[in-house]
Amino acid sequence: MTYTNNELITAFLARQIRDDDMCFVGVGTNGRAFTLAVGIPLAAVRLAQMNHAPGAAVYWGNLLEPDLSVIPDIFTQDAFTRWQAASCPPDTGTKCDMLMRRRFDVSFNSAAQIDRFGNLNITAIGDYRAPNVRLVGSLAQPEHLAFVRRPYLVCDLDKRTFVEKVDFITSVGYLHGGNSRLEAGLDEGGPQLVVTDKAIFDFEPTSKAMRLSSLHPGVTLEEVRDLMSLQPIIPETIPTTPEPTESEVAAIRNDIDPNRVLLKV
Amino acid sequence: MKEKLVSLETALAPITSGASITLGGSLLRRQPNAAVRHLIQRGVRDLTVLTWAGTTAIDMLAAADAVKRWEGIYVGMFNYGLAPNFRRAVQDGKIEVRDFSETAFTARLRAAAQGLPFLPIRTLLGSDIAAKNPEQIKPFDCPFTGRKLQAIAAADTEFTIIHGYAGDKYGNVQWPLVRDTDDMDQPMAAAAKRLIVTVEKIIPHEEIKAEPARTYIPGAWVEAIVEVPYGAHPVACDAIYDEDDAAIRDYLAASRTGEGAEEWLDRHARNPADHAAYLDLFGGAEALARLNLARGAA
Fold it and tell me: Where in the sequence is the domain holding B128, given as residue range(s)?
């Protein structure tokens, strides 16, 4: 059976969603960044809803439980305004409160830089006061990494993205590894998996360092190493990321994303 | 009730160089762009600006070299990418930045609304956002549990400018029943010291009175209200008109260089006599009606 890389990742993420999970999806940006931050996550939660997790819910923008059976296919402001949902709280403060109370089970996050301990940078490349590249700031990403029970990092493998140490810790993953996240005052949690276009990573339970978890079908270890500036822990035997099933691919193509808006690029 | 309906010029007259202002709106919705263009026309500079998810308004101010310091959760152009003028100014060291995550900024607004010097959060423990801002984010131990918390300083700007949907001459501003709520305009209004509101349309007080639950900014909080149709252009006023894709792309194309942005500002902010003259650059209200949405708010 043929499938695309985006379909492989979508099906993999869908299987991570549990019934009744409250999942945060961002509203972000364009092109490949849109696919990673919005398209794949929305498709994955919808696939989970259709299969094993009918109670899984999404908080998107400031819409609580938007109807994922009719995801807009034009993303202009008015398409967001008219997307039907169970609730549209009066302002974003409601979402902030839900985050701090740890009401979210899952979030999907991407970043300009990710380091060995799952810290993220979306603020500045280089020196904070006179950066080489000023990025967008922080939004609620620090909240996601601090309070969401199972954040999934969704990023393409790239030497510039996967670095030994981020230039600026916007969002704390496992900080300096070991117990340092807890010692800083944060709760248990932190990024669960890093889902990329080539491989999946988790974090080794004691050191909290990034560890290769599986290679996508046809991808070699050398290829992955060449695309990272940090050296992840490599296990003795490396599994292959499970392929999507025929019915998963059919659901994505026919029901979830028939116009190829979510998984376009 | 006191009448507060004035011209844009009168409403913004108290804001002078060196002032601190909070700007409403979020992403491509209800940025107070008409008000900001007027400040640029007047040559106001050295501003301290607070925003939620800022796009065009803060980026135009950055292009005009009018911002000394920015504090907020985000500056970018949403699905159009990074904010070119803001990015350039920060990279050149012209704007001092202080980042706040969403719960941190929310705490700042709520503290101001409650007259408190700070509110606690625990989001930024370990984050460089806190490490780089010891003046406004201070660690302390919870007096009840002993757990680590962070005190976030209240938002404290002299002025707040919000672009709203519709209001009356007394400054009561209402939102439509179906709208995009992903913003903090109401908490910003509650936190404001001197609140200036521009609205798409002034409507009779009788209409406001009939549905008071839709009044999200009570006139009692407002210093001045101004009727500014298409006041958020080129971004959207959700439920009333959509974003103007061509105009946003034109702005971004001009902003590839600082010189290009300067020329854009001359044509769109400094030279037009008033907001109506700005709208005429796009064919006037008649031509802009193509952006209007079937279900109007006002």
Answer: 118-153
